[in-house]
Write a structure and sequence with these properties.
The chain is an alpha/beta fold. It has 2 domains: about 220 residues, Rossmann fold (3-Layer(aba) Sandwich); about 170 residues, Glycogen Phosphorylase B (Rossmann fold), CATH 3.40.50. Helices cover about 45% and strands about 15% of the residues. It has 21 helices and 12 strands. The strands form 2 sheets. A 6-stranded parallel beta sheet has the order 2-1-3-4-5-6, sandwiched between helices. Strands 9-8-7-10-11-12 form a 6-stranded parallel beta sheet, with helices on both faces. Helix 4 crosses helix 7. The longest helix is centred in the N-terminal third of the chain and has 16 residues. The protein is globular and about 65 Å long. The termini are far apart.
């Protein structure tokens, strides 16, 4: 049985966001395909074991030099910054680079808060990983075309590669988030609804979402008793919380905060289906951005699986699939009137809502883990380094101007206040 290293830059522990959950599931699912897995992440062995992994299947990052941690592995699947360490420390090991999360694009939204350093680091990282990786995972066909463009610019799409693999599926393929064949028994997370009340779930707040169009749409609803649930980010130290503060201020002005709009702490990963089952509707509108065109909204896939109706903004893979399957409601970005009409239809219930819920469950059934992982399993069964990268790939330097003086002054003052205790 081949041993495979799984490297997640996000800690794998009971409370974690999407990437941590993805690597927990990889560690659980790949053994069914005939692989032994070892998980490497910044979490401790005890934290990862508490998430449901056997302690012997966990090798915490930093517990030994990385070459030693992967020495007995036939191949690796790596994500985020830890993939850099792996490519540099174990260059002979065949590596599948997981680009499911387009984090370079995500972090562009935080430039005003964090400056240009994240862009410099992220761009240099993508250049390294796409020049040196052997196989690449993405979430959708939209992402696949985007990454093929980046790979072409780095020489990875070349005459030899294309001659041997005309569709380049052996270079980059879709490995989306999978869904279990059987859901766990329901254990409620949210308080029981009052008679006539409906729970609306938004989830976590990130800068590419558009909660204000949702608030305006909700203000148009009459005769409906609803409560909107937002979820606090589990990594506030790493993800700027500007939008959270602005949403709270807007809701306080409306008199909704703590009443019609309520906050929920990030729940343990194993309870995420419970939360979606408690919701009568999942609605998280977004702005028309590159990030929302590229990302696969995992929470919407999981909502479809449990039969929770979804309302999504146009743009991106989820909106495309929901529209094609007529499995939910797709509304134009920023259109509060159309969004309000969709919300009213869902909250009123009826045969059409039931029909779309049923079609959503059928759509979700196509995302079983065995099917989702098939391209990765093919690579891992015959892992090999791409020989063409040595002849064609190159790594151009990343260029970016210096941060503006005003930003550098503000950052210096913030550091000074922190050092002085406030």
């Amino acid at each position: 049985m081949s041993r495979i290293a799984l490297l997640s830059s996000e800690p794998v522990r009971p409370r974690m966001a999407g990437i941590g959950i993805r690597y927990l599931e990889l560690a659980r699912r790949l053994p069914a395909a005939g692989f032994e897995t070892v998980l490497i992440s910044p979490a401790s062995r005890e934290e990862s074991a508490a998430a449901g992994l056997a302690p012997e299947a966990v090798r915490p990052f930093g517990s030994a030099p990385l070459p030693e941690l992967v020495r007995d592995c036939a191949a690796a699947v790596a994500q985020g910054q830890l993939a850099n360490d792996l490519l540099l420390a174990a260059p002979a090991l065949p590596v599948a680079i997981d680009l499911y999360d387009p984090w370079l694009v995500e972090n562009l939204h935080y430039t005003a808060t964090l400056g240009l350093d994240p862009y410099r680091n992220d761009h240099t990282t993508w250049v390294l990983q796409m020049a040196r990786g052997d196989f690449f995972l993405c979430s959708s066909e939209e992402q696949r075309l985007y990454y093929l463009g980046f790979l072409t610019a780095l020489g990875r799409v070349n005459p030899e590669r294309l001659g041997a693999d005309s569709d380049l599926r052996a270079l980059v393929d879709t490995v989306p988030f999978g869904l279990p064949a059987t859901l766990p028994a329901h254990r409620p997370v949210l308080p029981a609804c009052r008679p006539g009340e409906r729970h609306l779930l938004f989830g976590g707040l990130y800068d590419w979402y558009d909660p204000f169009t949702l608030m305006a749409a909700l203000a148009r609803l009459e005769g409906h008793d609803w409560t909107l649930w937002l979820v606090r980010n589990p990594n506030p130290e790493g993800t700027p919380q500007r939008l959270f503060a602005e949403v709270e201020a807007d809701c306080r002005r409306r008199g909704w905060w703590g009443g019609r709009v309520r906050m929920l702490d990030w729940i343990a990963a194993e309870r995420r289906y419970d939360l979606l089952r408690d919701a009568d509707l999942l609605v998280a509108p977004h702005h028309p951005t590159l990030e929302t065109r590229l990302a696969l909204r995992t929470r919407f896939l999981e909502a479809l699986a449990v039969g929770c109706p979804v309302v999504v903004s146009e743009g991106g893979a989820i909106a495309r699939m929901v529209s094609e399957a007529r499995a939910g409601w797709v509304v134009p970005c920023g259109d509060e009137a159309t969004l309000a009409a969709a919300l009213a239809e869902v909250l009123a219930g009826g045969p059409e809502v039931a029909a779309r819920r049923e079609r959503g469950e059928r759509l979700a059934a196509a995302f079983g883990w065995e099917r989702a992982l098939a391209p990765l399993v093919r690579f891992l069964r015959s892992p090999r380094s791409d020989p063409t990268k040595e002849r064609f790939a190159f790594r151009p330097p990343t260029g970016a101007p210096a941060d503006r003086f005003g930003f550098r002054l503000r950052r210096w003052l913030d550091r000074l206040r922190t050092e002085m205790g406030g």
